[in-house]
Write a structure and sequence with these properties.
heterodimer; A: alpha/beta; Rossmann fold; 8 helices; 25% strand; globular; B: alpha/beta; 24 strands; binds adenosine-5'-diphosphate; binds magnesium ion
Chain lengths: 267, 469
């Protein structure tokens, strides 16, 4: 059964200022969508709102996942339902190893799923956990010692992004939002991370790849591309849209909008 | 010990540790303290003249000394409302079968005999005023190690006790040291002969059972040259609406090249005033390490200290304090450098939540002539919400120029960004807070023996449960 994330006429404010100004977007498992847009257009705000950051106030609209209203759920419940956000700026948690944190997270999610009458999952055994962790670290070409480092503390930009994808791999979400996972990665790291993401992608996984540049989209190839400008989806199209953007820049979108010669997805 | 730390102050504590046996004592002195009570305690114990005089002299000092004019609020403490001596039983056990049934049940609920079998070299268990059980595994006994209650030591090894008793902490040190010196009962006595290294910990377990009881244990540890011992103590008490007082004195002598590690996990119920004086003398090339965890009690005032008496002495105080609603943890450490070429390190980590308040109070004192001293102080405070409070009172008295002294302090709040990051990965807010806290104390926890590290972490996790709105 495919699952769908539906964002309908979403408006989001931070500190009383409206940042997301009516976004409609539907992402289903098995699909890859890209959101592109200039800095400050609201890409991160949109992704934070989908996971339920308490500072980001939804003033209008709906977010549904698998038919359920996500906006009433706490972030951890959204995670347990199968939503995941790879942060643009992952947060440091001193003294907590990546491995021990991930084990807590995996077990927390299992506990909640069991409570919802899903498959009754027991706590993951240490052996099984470390086996899976090693497997996923291999996939992302990460040294096993990395798991014993404190979460994001002293990680380079690239290491942080890789650790985000490792967490995605361990938590196995249905819909993953990758917020500028490509920034801060050199070309080799970008290839490894993209290969990892592609390996995780499949009929049961949907991706929303947020990026400023086109380069990651050569590796993780979206079927749908949306352009976010000033809190609105200004353009939607297929993969060719990313190339046009690369060629003409974001000003081109603004010009197009001026001539209203494009289909605007939001109403 | 394994289960002994596993509790939740709000809900679990009552169930796991907060229970009490009714009328479990065979004798107690009447309420309040006076020279008559002091004499009565000494008489009941059949003590030698010198100890009786020591007690009476100390009582005189207690009466004259005023309450500390700094630190925590002690206005809720009424000396007249307490029982100073509560005797739980006429018998004392060398194995668990000999311990009176009720008392045994209590310690079984606290997991003590099990812990002993698993990973301890010896155990002392004190119930109210008296030690009810003590054991030391045969191999250590053969090597000449002594581990018993201080009362027993006074009878069996009067010369050693008399030589050291009250020399590290004289009765005049402070009002509560004077009170303890007057009415002390129980506590551990440890003697480690030269060169003997007791590789696995000795454990003492302190339990207050009776309502309005004071517990005044007196611990004395003598580590002869080149020896090693790790002593661990744990404390719990029933939950009562009236206040109790725990006021211990711990004296330690670490001789040349010896090393003593003293780990204390204090988990008193929220009606206990915990006012403790702990001090060690470290001689040439000796090492003294205090690991002090304060999680329970209503008010704690405790600053384990180290006097670095001779060249090459090293001292370390690692302090963890957790102050939840209504609690005040006034904790820290003191290093007094008397000799040159000595070093010390004080690391304090405090966590405050709700109306909880934690204070770091520390002293680094370098006496004239103590050149080439190294000392590092680091105190970090973590606030779990906006109401929680943390203060630091570091005092430095440096009377020598050629020294290397460092001090660092940080205060941080559990950040919204950290919480969102962790909850977006599936952790509840409580779990996320507990993870952040466990990371915060990790630098200290990783120095604990495995069993204690796991327990301490679990304890903190349980503390967090049901605590986030
Ligand atoms: N926590 C915040 N507090 C105040 N303003 C914010 C916050 N987060 C984002 N903004 C503002 O919202 C707008 C959109 O930011 P963001 O969503 O980060 O854009 P993008 O990810 O597309 O670069 C910007 O003007 C930014 O300054
Ligand atoms: Mg962004």
């Amino acid at each position: 059964m495919p699952k769908t994330l539906e964002i309908r006429k979403l408006h989001v404010e931070i500190e009383g200022r409206e940042i997301i100004k009516g976004v409609d977007l539907t992402v289903s498992t098995g699909e890859i969508h890209a959101i592109m847009g200039p800095n400050g257009s609201g890409k991160s705000t949109l992704s934070y709102s989908i996971l339920g950051h308490p500072d980001y106030a939804v003033t209008q609209g709906e977010v549904l996942f698998d038919g359920e209203n996500v906006l009433d759920m706490k972030p951890d419940e959204r995670a347990a339902k199968g939503l995941f956000l790879a942060f643009q700026y992952p947060v440091e948690v001193p003294g907590v190893t990546l491995a021990s944190f991930l084990r807590t997270a995996v077990n927390s999610i299992r506990k909640k799923q069991a409570r919802w009458g899903g498959q009754p999952l027991k706590e993951i055994s240490a052996i099984e956990f470390y086996k899976r962790l090693e497997e996923k670290m291999n996939l992302l070409q990460m040294d096993p010692s990395f798991a014993q480092r404190y979460l994001n503390e002293g990680f380079s930009g690239g290491e942080k992004k890789r650790a985000e994808i490792l967490q995605m791999a361990m938590l196995g979400p249905s819909i993953a939002i990758l917020d500028e996972t490509d920034s801060g990665l050199d070309i080799d790291a970008l290839r490894i991370v993209s290969d990892g993401v592609n390996a995780l992608y499949g009929p049961d996984v949907g991706l929303l790849v947020i990026t400023h540049y086109q380069r990651i989209l050569r590796y993780v190839q979206p079927q749908f591309v949306h352009v976010l400008v000033d809190g609105r989806i200004a353009l939607s199209g297929g993969p060719e849209l990313a190339e046009q953007l690369e060629e003409h820049g974001y000003d081109w979108v603004k010009d197009q909008l001026g001539e209203s010669a494009v289909t605007r997805q939001n109403g | 010990m394994a289960n002994a730390l596993n509790f939740n102050r709000r809900e679990g504590y009552l169930e796991k540790y907060g229970f009490h046996d009714k009328n479990s004592y065979v004798y107690r002195t009447e309420k309040g303290v006076s020279s008559r009570i002091v004499e009565e305690i000494s008489g009941l114990k059949g003590e030698p003249e010198w100890m009786r005089n020591f007690r009476l002299r100390s009582y005189g000092i207690f009466e004259k000394k005023s309450m500390p004019g700094w630190g925590a609020d002690l206005s809720g403490l009424r000396f007249d409302d307490l029982y100073y001596y509560v005797k739980p039983s006429d018998k004392k056990g060398r194995n668990w079968d000999e311990v009176p049934e009720k008392v045994k049940l209590t310690f079984e609920r606290l997991g003590i005999p099990e812990a002993e079998r698993k990973y301890l070299a010896g155990v002392e268990a004190q119930y109210d005023s008296e030690s009810v059980y003590s054991s030391l595994k045969g191999i250590w006994e053969k090597l000449g190690v002594i581990f018993c209650s201080t009362d027993e030591a006074l009878k069996k090894y009067p010369d050693i006790v008399r030589q050291y008793f009250g020399t590290v902490i004289p009765p005049g040190d402070n009002k509560f040291a004077a009170l303890n010196s007057a009415v002390w009962s129980g506590g551990s006595f440890i003697y480690v002969p030269a060169g003997v290294k007791v590789e696995i910990p000795l454990q003492a377990y302190f339990r207050i059972n009776a309502e309005s009881a004071g517990q005044f244990e007196r611990t004395l540890i003598i580590a002869e040259p080149g020896s090693f011992v790790h002593y661990v103590e744990g404390c719990t008490a029933p939950v009562y609406s009236t206040n109790s007082l725990h006021s211990a004195v711990v004296e330690i002598v670490v001789k040349e090249g010896a090393r003593v590690r003293y780990t204390s996990i204090q988990n008193w119920s929220d009606n206990v005033y915990n006012l403790v004086t702990k001090r060690a003398f470290a001689y040439k090339d000796a090492t003294m390490e205090w690991l002090d965890g304060n999680l329970g009690s209503k008010v704690t005032m405790k600053y384990p200290s180290i006097y670095l008496m001779e060249k090459g002495a090293r001292g370390e105080v690692l302090s963890i304090a957790y102050a939840g609603n209504g609690q005040h943890q006034d904790a820290g450490g003191k290093a007094v450098h008397i000799a040159p070429y000595t070093s010390s390190r004080i690391v304090s980590k405090s966590i405050s939540k709700g109306t909880g308040r934690s204070s770091y109070r520390g002293l680094v004192h370098v006496r004239k002539g103590a050149h080439h001293v190294k000392s590092k102080v680091r105190c970090d405070a973590l606030l779990l919400d906006d109401r929680a409070r943390s203060d630091t009172y570091p005092v430095m008295e440096i009377n020598e120029d050629e020294v290397d002294i460092g001090h660092e302090a940080t205060v941080s709040k559990v950040g919204d960004e950290q919480l969102f990051y962790l909850t977006s990965r599936g952790l509840t807010e409580e779990e996320a807070t507990a993870v952040i806290v466990s990371g915060f104390i990790e630098p200290i926890v990783k120095q604990l023996p495995m069993e204690y590290a796991i327990e301490l972490n679990r304890l903190i996790e349980l503390e967090m449960e049901g605590s986030v709105g």
